[in-house]
Amino acid sequence: MVSRSYDVEDPRRPRGIRLPRRERRAQLLASALEVFVAQGYHAAAMDDIAERAGVSKPVLYQHFPGKLDLYLALLDKACDDIIANCRAALESTTDNKLRVAATMDAFFGYVAHDAGAFRLVFESDFTSEPAVRDHVDRVTTECAALITEVIKEDTGLPDAASRLLAVSLVGIGQVSARYWLQDPSGIARQEAVALVSALAWRGIRGYPKTD
């Protein structure tokens, strides 16, 4: 028989449902995301996160030894999601014009998500911490690496040139999506994606495909 690990609740607190460890971890991450997005890293406290999750601090510390560990776990998931969205966009079609549009839409869709996880990646108040900076840079690096392969294969440009163009496209997607979210003019997402995609495509299509 396979045993399942369960959290040990503080006996001083009212007894509730004991969740399997994986489910509890997911719950804690969701609660932590809400607190970090609302307060930022520095203002957030483990007490706030435990209270939001409805658990005792000892239960929280069973899963995450400290606030930085919890923050990095959230960053890992956020970065993985963005990179996965970028990969899915590139693999969704072999038409490069549509690829550009799908990739830009992936960035806009991510920042528009209600959970606000993108703020941990693009608007972190704790990028002075090397581990946090490494996680944030991973989004640009890995998304650009995916796009680099497409550019290099289609154009025959050297690695360095393909990578520079790829980083530029990622920058367009990230910066324009973040600006759009805060733009008071209220441009619809579909229209914003079309505008930015057209800009990016008119630039990148100047590098002809090779046979």
Describe the structure.
This protein has two domains: 21-65, Arc Repressor Mutant, subunit A (Orthogonal Bundle), CATH 1.10.10; 75-204, Tetracycline Repressor, domain 2, CATH 1.10.357. Helix content is 71%, strand content 0%. It contains nine helices and no strands. Helix 4 (67-91) packs parallel to helix 7 (130-155), helix 5 (96-111) crosses helix 9 (189-204) and helix 7 packs across helix 8 (159-182). With 211 residues, the chain is mainly α.
Ordered list of secondary-structure elements with their pairings:
Elements: H1 21-43, H2 46-53, H3 57-63, H4 67-91, H5 96-111, H6 118-122, H7 130-155, H8 159-182, H9 189-204
Features:
Arc Repressor Mutant, subunit A; Tetracycline Repressor, domain 2; 9 helices; elongated; mainly alpha
Question: What's the quick description here?
Answer:
The chain is an all-alpha fold and 211 residues long. It is built from nine helices and no strands.
